[in-house]
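User: Need the bound-state model for hypoxanthine:
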Amino acid sequence: MPTPHISAAEGDIAEAVLLPGDPMRAEFIAETFLEDAREVTAVRNMLGFTGTYKDLAVTVMGTGMGVPSASIYITELIRFYGARRLVRVGSCGGISSNVAMRDIILAIGANTDSGVNRARYRGWDFAATADYGLLSATAAAAQAAGLSVHVGNVHTSDSFYNPEPEALATWQRMHVLAVEMEVAGLYGIAAEEGVRALAVLTVSDHLVTQEETTSQERERTFGEMVTLALEGLLTDAS
Ligand code: HPA
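Assistant: Bound-state model below.
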């Protein structure tokens, strides 16, 4: 049952879905971490694959950048294909001085300058939060792997090049850990649709120190993050 933006057939999408922003990352995850992975959708080159991780059926699909793009794919995966556990695996810009390059963040909640959750919630301030079961299972999986992670709030921005000069100071004052561009949309849709969501992020650049990771470093940390997200899904299912 293809949708406007996903060409997968009925039954092609698993209930557990990993969501990187970059479709090439989706392909990399499928090839590197899943068994028997096959491409299930490629509309606009937004690639999606389904395979297994330790016998758990998992789909991995790109979302593109920003809340509007991600919201299209996330909504269709849930409404038309039965996705029930959705985990964003992506990068973020560090804000807090407690957060270092390549650290992993589990996003409890996402503040945002996007209007999507206000539109969903009649102009009131909606608390866009992770599913507690997925969050606690993934935190437990991190501990079991000896991996230290940060658990806290992020900011989902509609602008990568933010025109607001006070943005950084505001995020710091409110002890926001990092900035990225999709999580508030994911959590808002999950709440509306009654499904479960989490974001696992790695710090790819730092807004205070101005550091940036090399692509080689990003690949290594990216692997740790993906393994953690998959182990979290397994722990949650057990
Ligand atoms: N801003 C917004 N999104 C991001 C950033 C950033 O600095 N780094 C990675 N995703």
